[in-house]
Sequence to fold (328 residues):
Amino acid sequence: MHLIHRPRRMRADSFSRRLARETLLTRNDLIYPVFVCEGSGEQQPVDSMPGIHRWSIDRLIDHLQPLVDAGLQAAALFPVIEAERKDPEASEAVNPNGLAPRALEALATHFPGLGLIADVALDPYTSHGLDGLVDDKGYVVNDATVEVLVEQALVLARAGAQVVAPSDMMDGRIGAIRAAQEEAGMVNTRILAYSVKYASAFYGPFRDAVGSASALGKADKLGFQLDPANAREALREAELDLDEGADMLMVKPAMPYLDILAGVREISDLPLFAYQVSGEYAMLTAGVQNGWLPESAIHESLLAIKRAGADAILSYFTHKLFSGLPQT
Ligand code: PBG
Fold:
């Protein structure tokens, strides 16, 4: 053979492979999602997410300390609300003394440089497990829900979240939150829009972790989250959030939706994040724990998400991988 093109030449030695490498995963790329519960001294394992726990505020601080020391830039907080505090109106979501605001205050005091991302959605707080207020037919009503989300976002920002992250998929919530923040003089509170959030089966373990699975029962979220079959609709959602004033966009889940991530990357210059969700974590962890997959599959999954266009990734593997990643 007389070949001009032999792409394997560059792969022949470590030095040229390294020089040609296009994507590098570093400590600055990971955001750690954490579950916080009431009490003190609590460390409750999440059965469907081996290695992940619900922490009381004091233990969460202990858990995060070494990561923050090693350069963790941001954590995303998810509260586990006690069943007796849930109601159909999600009243607890706007309680300034609720679990999420108390946790944010403690974390902001203890870790002044850490980015704190607070989820804005009503599902941890509703007795029916849906992300918004429902009418008598069980339909999640949009505009009334947005009013509560706006209030929730202000409460979370006042408690210390520099970033609020609406994960509810209501129409118009980014614009409404942005307007309320301007009104309140919170000009630097950033909005991370879960712009493209699919109605995905991969959220199963998360719903166990925060206890919304039992509340949700057989109901589903198809009336507001995106149909997994759709890609054009995803781009439209991203464009709307851009127009409404989002600072960062997000695609979720991550690995089953890399085409969407790459597509949103093309239409937007905003920082773009991806959420490697609980089901992705459970799947990879099961593979590794059973000896069916080498542990390097975890790093590969994150590298693939970054290569597809993510600037940063929310990943439950942050804790496990962190010390092995380069610091930049
Ligand atoms: C709540 C919310 C969910 C996740 C993040 N915020 C669950 C859902 O929409 O049912 C999922 C995260 C994960 O699976 O890791 N709105």
About this structure: The first strand starts at residue 30 and ends at 37. The chain has a mean pLDDT of 97. The domain at 25-324 is CATH 3.20.20.70 (TIM Barrel).
